[in-house]
Amino acid sequence: MANTNDADEDGPRVPIVCPACETTSRIPLADVADAVERHNEQLHDGDDVAEVDPDIADQIADLVATELGLLEDADESHS
Question: Which helix (H) or strand (E) element contains residue 1?
Answer without folding.
Answer: none
